[in-house]
Design brief:
The structure is a single chain. This protein has helices spanning 28-38, 53-63, 79-89, 102-112, 123-142, and strands spanning 5-9, 12-16, 19-24, 44-50, 67-71, 94-99, 116-119. It is of the alpha/beta class. Strand 6, helix 4 (102-112) and strand 7 form a beta-alpha-beta unit. Helix 3 (79-89) runs parallel beside helix 4. The longest helix is centred in the C-terminal third of the chain and has 20 residues, at 123-142. It is globular.
């Protein structure tokens, strides 16, 4: 169920359909903190959670969030590899990296396709505005100059389908 709304935040009025967010972190307590922070905003819809990169890729395939909050250091598959995999499949999906030491991982996460990287300490103060910056940037990049941005991302590749410049895995 989509609802239209208008919210004012420190950067100005925001109008539209809620941002669909997937939370990915191997620490359940930190996922709960993020859920509590984002739950205060009517223009953010948390569509799911994942505890590692493999689950993140699976949930991106099934839930199709607009935005993923991705921990960098996780077991089984880390956030960098998961970001790279998800961005290959869904170029318009926006990923914000989260790390205890953002400076150490910023370059690698950006190279993997993350829009930005925040320290876990800065999340409380910067996350809401960062979500809207990321959504606006995604819409700007994805939309042709003469057409409004599309929200659903249905034109993106289904899992397992290779991009034109990469051969399909055998």
């Amino acid at each position: 169920m989509c609802r239209e709304l208008t919210v004012t935040d420190p950067t100005g009025p925001i109008t539209g359909i809620p941002i669909r967010v997937l939370i990915v972190d191997n620490h359940s307590i930190f996922r709960q903190v993020l859920r509590n922070i984002l739950g205060r905003y009517p223009d953010v819809e948390i569509v799911g959670e994942a505890a590692n990169g493999l689950q993140a890729v699976e949930r991106a395939d099934t839930l199709r969030p607009e935005l993923i909050l991705m921990d960098v250091n996780m077991p089984l598959m880390g956030g960098i590899e998961a970001t790279r995999t998800i961005k290959d499949r869904y170029p318009r999906m926006v990923i914000i990296g989260l790390s205890a030491d953002a400076k150490e991982h910023r370059t690698t996460m950006h190279a993997a396709g993350a829009f930005l990287v925040l320290t876990k300490e800065d999340v409380v103060h910067e996350l809401y505005v960062a979500l809207h910056r990321a959504k606006a940037e995604s819409a700007r990049i994805a939309a042709p100059a003469d057409e409004p941005p599309q929200r659903d991302g249905q034109e993106e590749k289904p899992p397992g389908q290779a991009s034109p410049e990469k051969p399909a895995p055998s």
